[in-house]
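Chapter summary example: a protein plus zinc ion.
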Amino acid sequence: MVCLYCGGKTRVFNSRKQHKGNSVWRRRRCQRCLAVFTTQESPDLASTLMVSQSGVYTPFLADFLYTDILLALQDRKNCYIEAREITKTVIRHLLKLSTSPLFEPRQISVETAKVLKRFNKRAYLRYAAEHESLQKGLRG
Ligand SMILES: [Zn+2]
């Protein structure tokens, strides 16, 4: 990785595994201008595929999941921050759920609903109302 400011070579002088999740945090220092900045390494979720209903594979887009979750949380004061954290939690759960990178849309909805239910009942109900596949099986 080159320096953000001058394009010079950088060296890692501190790194830490985030205790939650799948990412590594690194402090880098530019060898030319001595600027310091942080990078974070995490799995590329665009390469985590998702299978559509019709059997056609489309890339998993975390932004869609985030938008769905944000809609469910829309009346909460910190909905943007909460939606971002919940999106990360759902993705972490999905990655643990399976050894394969292929997911059914329903698996994603079910996992999202589970996380939301634990977080906030109202957000969960709003999410479930938007996802018909959840109407059965997840009630109660
Ligand atoms: Zn530099």
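Key point: Residues 45-134 form one domain.
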